[in-house]
């Protein structure tokens, strides 16, 4: 794709910071199609904001853009990690900030697209230093969960961090474990760190650190949740038809991966691993995978609702794409 560079966002010589546009939404809301449509009209480079797309060899179950889509417009932060190695929100902030500067320096518009809302919040609001992973505490929590069950640990979390517990499902082992770990190591709830970060003056911090500035956050959200549920089911069936189970079999065959890794805890992969292990009935895999994806979408929408600066587009509207393009055009012209 060859498009002329965008006009500068500010007059030559102005000391403004690099600026970027963000497109967020729950899974299956149409973010990829919208991003590609934007790229057909503006000279953008896409920065993925997705904690699953970073992993190589995980293509079908993550609904990763196709090779043709990746080739149509420059994409960043896709296929940058082996599934054996975790990728953190702090790393994302560092990588995305650098990419925003580089893309802007090339005269192009950085377009951040994805559904990992923690990454968006970390980039926009900043991250406080939270306790690093503590293997001993994490192992103790896992041992308790094996004896009591995750709903019991979810109840324990609610007693010390009601805000975090309210946005987590009782079976969300990864997030419950991390929240309890943070509390046990620091004596402070996870929500304390998030709230303290949100209270910072981002504008002042940006000007001190040279960070990038958000032009606009466009959020694709369904007016009718059943529309999104239908899309989720259709996409999951398409993944199965495309060979999702074989993809997970190939990952398991490596021999160095396990179901406790962040990569293998991704929605769909976790349920497929359990089905192949025999710890969950194979016949229930499809329903469990779809249910887990719905729960992910619910969490994503909850995150989005806390981001007051967003421009909402109902993704189930017939002209949703035209609304997104109009918003982008308006923001680019006025940025």
Task: Describe the model.
The protein has 335 residues and is α/β, with parallel strands linked by helices. Helix content is 53%, strand content 10%. The chain is built from 15 helices and six strands. The protein has a six-stranded parallel β-sheet with strand order 3-2-4-1-5-6, with helices on both faces. β2, α2 (67-72) and β3 form a beta-alpha-beta unit. It is globular. Residues 1-15 and 198-210 have low confidence and may be disordered.
| Order of strands, widest sheet | 3-2-4-1-5-6
Q: Indicate the low-confidence ranges by residue numbers.
A: 1-15, 198-210
Percent in strands: 5-15%
Q: Give me the count of strands.
A: 6
Radius of gyration: 20 Å
Q: Please state the average pLDDT score.
A: 87
Alpha-carbon distance between the termini? 24 Å
Q: Give the helix/strand class.
A: alpha/beta
Quaternary structure type: single chain
Shape: globular
Q: Report on the biggest sheet.
A: 6 strands, parallel
Number of helices: 15
Residues in helix, %: 40-55%
SSE run:
EHEHEHEHHHHHHHEHHHHEH
């Amino acid at each position: 794709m060859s498009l002329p560079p965008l006009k500068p966002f500010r007059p030559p010589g102005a000391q403004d910071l690099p600026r970027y546009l963000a497109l967020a939404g729950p899974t299956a809301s149409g973010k990829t199609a919208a991003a590609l449509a934007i790229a057909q009209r503006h000279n953008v480079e896409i920065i993925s904001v997705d904690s699953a797309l970073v992993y190589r060899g995980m293509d079908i179950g993550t609904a990763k853009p196709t090779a043709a889509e990746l080739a149509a417009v420059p994409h960043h932060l896709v296929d940058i990690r082996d599934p054996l190695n975790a990728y953190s929100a702090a790393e994302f902030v560092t990588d995305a900030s650098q990419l925003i500067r580089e893309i802007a320096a090339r005269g192009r518009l950085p377009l951040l697209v994805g559904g990992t809302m923690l990454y968006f919040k970390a980039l926009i609001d900043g991250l406080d230093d939270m306790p690093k992973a503590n293997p001993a505490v994490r192992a103790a929590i896992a041992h308790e969960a094996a004896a009591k069950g995750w709903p019991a640990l979810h109840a324990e979390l609610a007693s010390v961090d009601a805000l975090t517990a309210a946005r987590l499902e009782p079976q969300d082992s990864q997030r419950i474990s991390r929240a309890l770990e943070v509390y046990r190591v620091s004596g402070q709830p996870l929500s304390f760190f998030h709230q303290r970060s949100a209270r910072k003056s981002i504008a002042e911090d940006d000007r001190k650190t040279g960070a990038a500035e958000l032009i606009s956050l466009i959020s694709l959200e369904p007016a009718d949740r059943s529309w999104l549920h239908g899309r989720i089911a259709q996409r999951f069936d398409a993944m199965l038809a495309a060979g999702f189970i074989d993809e997970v079999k190939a990952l398991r065959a490596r021999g160095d991966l396990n179901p406790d890794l962040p990569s293998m805890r991704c929605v769909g992969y976790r349920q497929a691993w359990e089905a192949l292990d025999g710890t969950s009935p194979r016949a229930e895999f499809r329903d469990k995978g779809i249910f887990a994806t719905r729960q992910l979408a619910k969490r994503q929408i909850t995150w989005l609702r806390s981001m007051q600066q967003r421009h909402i587009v109902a993704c189930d509207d017939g002209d949703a794409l035209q609304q997104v393009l109009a918003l982008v055009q308006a923001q680019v012209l006025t940025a």
